[in-house]
Known about the structure:
Elements: H1 33-59, E1 64-68, E2 72-73, H2 86-99, E3 105-111, E4 114-119, H3 121-134, E5 141-147, H4 152-166, H5 171-183, H6 190-197, H7 203-219, H8 231-243, H9 247-257, H10 261-271, E6 309-313, E7 320-324, H11 330-342
Parallel strand pairs: 2-4, 3-5
Antiparallel strand pairs: 1-5, 3-4, 6-7
Amino acid sequence: xxxxxxxxxxxxxxxxxxxxxxxxxxxxxxxxxxxxxxxxxxxxxxxxxxxxxxxxxxxxxxxxxxxxxxxxxxxxxxxxxxxxxxxxxxxxxxxxxxxxxxxxxxxxxxxxxxxxxxxxxxxxxxxxxxxxxxxxxxxxxxxxxxxxxxxxxxxxxxxxxxxxxxxxxxxxxxxxxxxxxxxxxxxxxxxxxxxxxxxxxxxxxxxxxxxxxxxxxxxxxxxxxxxxxxxxxxxxxxxxxxxxxxxxxxxxxxxxxxxxxxxxxxxxxxxxxxxxxxxxxxxxxxxxxxxxxxxxxxxxxxxxxxxxxxxxxxxxxxxxxxxxxxxxxxxxxxxxxxxxxxxx
Length: 344
């Protein structure tokens, strides 16, 4: 039987291993040069727009940036808050340890890679403590908004507003920053500093801050817990010191001999003509003689806060909250807007 011969199709030259691959032509026609130029121009314009938006956000203080802790100068401004509550500081440290920094600090660009702290002093101190304790790189940076205050006065106002909204200041601390701003030549007079730093405060509150100015001028640095001085006692002592400047050195001497904040408070109460609230006065049983002037008029109690009514409608992401009532005035609106922008 004859053996069949297998027929195989001839292999095209372009399929042989030695042959180069044929040039493949695109099924789409090449884009005309003008289209390529237009595309490249659009991409360049989009990139420039993004870069411009980022630069504008940075210049306007809307871009959060991580900065090394050592690059932030905590002494850029004379701080209004004199001391941090140990319990509150411990809570902040643990919050940063567990969740990281949720709210940025505010700084001013001083040039040369240095930044001056405007607000966020407690956050900066807590991060420094964590970095020293753990050595972790995540605690070596602080998230900041870089502000560009036009004047030192604007920087001080930003610091005061931050603390007023976040945790509030004592009247002694408020009066102290007024006098320090004058000493730093940020404002020409205490009256100008009071109006500039606390412009959003009511006239009654500004008046009370002004009433503490003589007390701060006489006793700053001599008190263990100045923020604990009650409002009425501070205002009464302020009037007495303004009337009798010779009272200041006598009070400072009594305070120097007293041990602890409670004993010092007893000295101040005795000076105002009252009785010590607890125990005997370690600085001596005799009260500091008040000036021979008519008894000061009683301090009028602060008016009760105006009510604010809240009404909520809807639920979840579509909840609408309406605030109304006598308390919803321009000052309330400004404080609320600042809090919504900057958080806690």
